[in-house]
Input
Amino acid sequence: MGQDIHIRQAVKEDIDCIEKLYGDICDYLEMHRNYPGWKKGVYPARSDAEDALMENALYIARVGEQAAGTVILKHGPEDGYKKGRWLTEDDYRYIYVVHTLAVHPGFLKSGVGTGLLTYAEQVALREGCVSIRLDVVKGNIPAERLYQKCGYQFTGTVSLGYEAYGLPWFHLYEKVLSLHRQ
Output
């Protein structure tokens, strides 16, 4: 699209924009195929953004004045990650996990998702991380294509305990940044 995407760590004043972004995405998903199984007011919700902000783990992408996307980047894995086969050792002090990568429907296929993943890699490399991991609902083809395009490798399928929400299986991905901690 040729628009400048600016990504930075989110601040308290961004929470309203991120809550609206989550709502806009969930509204869009209700009208289209809901690949991730997100539900407005359930997940992702304002409280998810607020919790991530408190942990300095929330990032926002803006195009002009509009919130175009967001991502949560933490060192903590989902419990189900223990069942996965990974490409690097399980020392999460040196591994980031991508949570709640979200792109506003008005910015789909405009480079925002790629930009957020590239930014996550830059943060991880600055901190001497060896890899970035993530999970995606099995069947979320658009997200899986994005992750593969950005160099993430499929490592397996596990349950993350969300069967009650109709989400029994998740594909695991990892991108190795360095074989040695810095």
Summary: Residues 15-31 form the longest helix (17 residues). Strands lie at 6-9, 58-63, 66-74, 95-103, 131-137, 153-158, 170-176.
